[in-house]
Amino acid sequence: MKIMITGGGGFIGQKLARKLADIGQLNQREISRIALADIQQPDPVIASMPVDYIKADISNKSDVAALFSEEVDVVFHLAAVVSGEAETNFDLGRRVNLDGSINILDAAARQTATRGNMPVVIFASSVAVHGGEAPELISDGVELNPQTSYGTQKAMIELLLQDYSRKGFLNGRGLRLPTVTIRPGKANRAASSFMSSIFRDTLQSEHANCPVTRNFPVWHTAPRTVVENFIHAASIPAANFGYNRNLNLPGRTDTIGEMINQMTEVAGPEAEKRITWNRDPQIEKIVMGWRGSFRPEKALALGFAADHSFADSVRYFLEDDIA
Ligand SMILES: NC(=O)c1ccc[n+]([C@@H]2O[C@H](COP(=O)([O-])OP(=O)(O)OC[C@H]3O[C@@H](n4cnc5c(N)ncnc54)[C@H](O)[C@@H]3O)[C@@H](O)[C@H]2O)c1
To answer: Is 10 in the pocket of ligand 1 (CB under 6 A)?
Structure first.
């Protein structure tokens, strides 16, 4: 089977590609080819099967048509302009997160219509679709009420993914990711970027600022867990999703203070001393609009994996990203 990852040069896209290359099969079918598509040239991945590295802009229809020139069986649609950037640059966020995602859905639907091979499309949504007047604890079925342009664009694609699936245009699954931490590499323009940098950078002897207070609650998941859940999403029979193909993924709620304590437990007290505490009203406004507590019963019933502690996430980071 052929797999495509849009945003295949990004943080999760690269980890997902490495994992798929490593396991070599999906749903008991051998992976014959992986295509990594990104607006920036994706880094190479060690694999026994051929891997295509494709520079493509999903907001450009002819780039997207070219991505589907060969049949694709499973699409992990991860390409996006992240939250902070989509908020400051509305036009870019709308063009990529909304129009670009529609281009991917339409190309997948065209494949179904012209070749009779309906692709599974797994969409990286976000808990940023929730907020506003939603309850503090989000259970399944709570009305979407995004408080950012990014969250709104994700919510709009969720609705289309559901409708395209209902119509039999594609076989969609939308996963609302918690904040994925600890993210390796450099800080990005996500409003949640500090939720990684205060661990990642301080564990590597650098300073990092925390723009919110210690008691700020974070709904988070580890990169290893989210990759496992993307792969799991491809294996669930469509009928098991019932009437909604989109769901909240499992995660954990810890306050920033609790997360720092767990980092200290694993890696000692030095890292915390490198955190500065200067509040940033702009970041605070965005992240306060998100929810910190979820009850993802549907995802758990469907067998998605949950995190057991943030200490595990620190250990994974040291093993996977520092070593
Ligand atoms: N990391 C998180 O905490 C988190 C939380 C919730 C949702 N998500 C979602 O998960 C997905 C992956 O997130 P990530 O953390 O790996 O982000 P990332 O920024 O590392 O990766 C996104 C990739 O998309 C690419 N991209 C941007 N515009 C593009 C375009 N026009 N055409 C093609 N590629 C383009 C970027 O170059 C980047 O490599 C995104 O859709 C994001 O919204 C992530």
So the answer is: yes
Which atom of ligand 1 lies closest to the CA of 13?
16
| In the block, residue with structure tokens 């520079």 | 55
Q: Is 16 in the pocket of ligand 1 (CB under 6 A)?
A: no
In this prediction, residues 184-199 reach a mean pLDDT of: 89
Query: What letter represents residue 31's amino acid?
Result: I
pLDDT tens by residue, 287-307: 888 888 999 999 999 999 999
Ligand 1 pocket residue status of 88, Cβ below 6 Å = no
pLDDT tens string 78-128: 999 998 899 899 999 999 999 999 999 999 999 999 999 999 999 999 999
**Which of 53, 150, 243, 316 is the catalytic position?**
150
Query: For the structural domain made of 2-178+222-248, what CATH number should be given?
Result: 3.40.50.720
What pLDDT, on a 0 to 100 scale, did the predictor assign at position 323?
63
Domain limits, the chain: 2-178+222-248, 191-218+252-290+308-322
Q: Which amino acid is at 283?
A: I
Q: In ligand 1, which atom is closest to the CA atom of 40? A: 37
How far is ligand 1, taken at its centre, from the CA of residue 12, in Å? 8
CATH homologous superfamily of domain 191-218+252-290+308-322? UDP-galactose 4-epimerase, domain 1 (3.90.25.10)
Q: Residue 29: exposed, middle, or buried by beta-carbon count in 10 A (0-12, 13-18, 19+)?
A: exposed
Q: Is 243 a catalytic residue?
A: no
Indicate the average pLDDT of the chain: 96
Higher pLDDT, 282 or 92: 92
Q: Is the CB of 63 under 6 A from ligand 1?
A: no
67 ligand 1 Cβ < 6 A: no
Task: Give 100-166 as a DSSP string.
Answer: IHHHHHHHHHHHHHHHS---EEEEEEEGGG--TTS-SEEETTPPP---SHHHHHHHHHHHHHHHHHH
Ligand 1 mutation pick, 45, 179, 180, max ligand atoms within 8 A of CB: 180
What are the φ/ψ torsions at residue 192 (nearest 5 degrees)? -85, 5
